[in-house]
Amino acid sequence: MAVLIKVCSLAGRNRVAVLVVAVVLAIGLGVLRETASRDGRDLIFLTGIVVIIGSLALALAAIYGYHPAALVVRPDLPAFETHPPAGQVLLFAALTVQGGTTVTGLIMDAVNGEEYWTFGLPAMALWLIAIGFAWWQMLRPGGVRLRPDGVEDRQPFGSMFVPWEAFTGVPYPALVVGRSKITLTFADSALVRTRGWRPIGPALPANAVDARFLTYAIHEYAHRPELRAVIGTEAEYDRLTGAWRDWPNVG
């Protein structure tokens, strides 16, 4: 478990590096597969399969098993925000290796003057669109932020901002639903601002954070307005995590 936590933490924090490694692997495997001997091609093919299966296994382990009770401290905003979802980063890395290897092979066929390489153009276009969209989604700023003025959620096609005042008088403004979703209850939904398309509606994703911890943090600031001004500071984060560890319901 400690190894999984370390890998997921590194993958989440270093998304660009993971993308670069995946692209280099894809190009390298694609070129070698086209230029190697028959026996060499079999070995390279097996190597690619191992890399892809390994990435998928890590991605699934991260998606289902890596939900740390932790947030990123952003004093520059100021805010506390969720970590990038390591599971999706690893999943998109596997997609990049698979698709990139295919695209590289098709390009090599074209360079070598293969007669029927044009039949692979639709597959190349689909792979490039899929990989491009996946990494556009992953590299853009996103996730849940707790700010001094409210809760912000940024998704690929839409965003939501809930001022703390929208929770006034609500005993339980946030409730965990399943493993990775938090539903919100508002005293005044007219205060909530949404933009674009949000398929999950008035809820928050908890893909890269312990949903109970994020729920606890929302409860804390919804009910204690005197603490909101120090959101985004290291001292307040230490206080929040300490209070969470001492909370009777933890565990």
Structure write-up:
Keywords: Membrane, Transmembrane, Transmembrane helix. The chain crosses the membrane at residues 16-32, 44-66, 86-107, 119-138. This is PH domain-containing protein. With 251 residues, the protein is α+β, with helices and mostly antiparallel strands. The chain folds into two domains: 2-71 and 85-139, no CATH class; 143-246, no CATH class. The chain is built from seven helices and nine strands, in the order αααββααβββββββαα. It has helices spanning 2-13, 15-35, 38-65, 86-111, 121-139, 211-223, 234-246; strands at residues 72-74, 79-81, 143-147, 150-155, 158-163, 174-177, 181-184, 193-196, 203-205. A six-stranded antiparallel β-sheet has the order 1-2-3-4-5-8, with no helix packed on it. A three-stranded antiparallel β-sheet has the order 6-7-9, with helices on one face. β1 (72-74) and β2 form a beta hairpin. α2 runs parallel beside α4. The radius of gyration is 22 Å and the shape is elongated. The model has no long low-confidence stretch (mean pLDDT 90).
